[in-house]
Design a protein that fits this description.
Layout (H helix, E strand, L loop, with lengths): L2 E4 L5 H12 L3 E6 L2 H13 L3 E6 L5 H10 L6 E4 L14 H29 L2 E6 L12 H20 L5 E8 L5 H14 L3 H9 L11 H11 L11 E4 L7
Parallel strand pairs: 1-2, 1-4, 2-3, 4-5, 5-6, 6-7
Helix pairs in contact: 1-2, 1-8, 3-4, 4-5, 6-7
InterPro entries: 3-OHbutyrate_DH, NAD(P)-bd_dom_sf, Sc_DH/Rdtase_CS, SDR, SDR_fam
Protein name: 3-hydroxybutyrate dehydrogenase
Family: Belongs to the short-chain dehydrogenases/reductases (SDR) family.
């Protein structure tokens, strides 16, 4: 079983993956900007018989990353870069400070934390990095310029780091799901309804699920299952890859 640090793990996809992998017997380091909420997820894992701890982590801060890695009880064998946020607006109405912040969290922050854990992984001769990308790592939607740019960048970043770590037993891959029913997606529904001038029900049926031939939201169990595969011996030669869970979106 592995020691797994998950960013943005106090809610949504991060919490879902943390709970699933905790049940599988891994030690989960639940990290988030909100330490209280992270602590609650860690408590749930322990109550279910698993092993977990929580740590405050701001991926946009070198100091926070260093403090978090110094505070945890064991080395990071697996890093799941999940922290993310969304802002829906036309570019002309998109505050540039907000645009920059999204990229700082979802792209530069991934590089910052990956950079911090790589020396230890190299020293131990093992490491697995799993980036939570998005269908928007591959395709675009209007009104999401910062998010789409960051998630596209994540795929390129993963390919470069795969080459830089090819000399040791470290891999890095990106999972790209279409819509997962999370608080982030729930808030997007209202934003998209306002921006597009349609009802929230139409956003779900026409914007989110219509592009997916299977027509259903992606589940936490699917994301955790793919993550479990990527950190298993069966995937030791899979690196720099983009794994797409999109209900058939991109095959059309």
């Amino acid at each position: 079983m592995r020691s797994i640090l998950i960013t943005g793990a106090a809610s949504g996809i991060g919490a879902g993956i943390a709970l699933e992998l905790g049940r599988a017997g891994h030690h989960i380091i639940v990290s988030d900007l909100n330490p209280d909420a992270a602590g609650e997820v860690a408590r749930q894992i322990r109550e279910a018989g698993g092993s977990a701890e929580a740590v405050a982590l701001d991926v946009t801060s070198d100091e926070s990353v260093a403090a978090a890695l110094a505070a945890i009880s064991r080395p990071v064998e697996v890093l799941v870069n999940n922290a993310g946020l969304q802002h829906v607006a036309r570019l002309e109405e998109f505050p540039m400070a907000r645009w920059d912040f999204l990229v700082q969290v979802m792209l530069t922050g991934v590089a910052r934390l990956t950079r911090a854990v790589l020396p230890g992984m190299r020293e131990r001769g093992f490491g697995r990095i799993v980036n939570i990308g998005s269908i928007h790592s591959l395709v675009a939607s209007p009104f999401k310029s910062a998010y789409v740019a960051a998630k596209h960048g994540l795929v390129g970043f993963s390919k470069v780091i795969a080459l830089e770590t090819a000399d040791t037993d470290i891999t890095i891959n990106t999972i790209c799901p279409s819509y997962v029913k999370t608080p982030l997606v729930d808030s997007q529904i209202a934003d998209q309804a306002r921006t597009r001038g349609i009802s929230e029900a139409e956003v779900v049926s026409q914007v989110m699920l219509k592009p997916m031939p299977k027509g259903v939201f992606i589940g936490f169990d699917e994301l955790a299952g793919v993550t479990a595969f990527l950190i298993s011996p069966a995937a030791r030669n899979m690196t720099g890859q983009t794994l797409v869970l999109d209900g058939g979106w991109t095959v059309q």
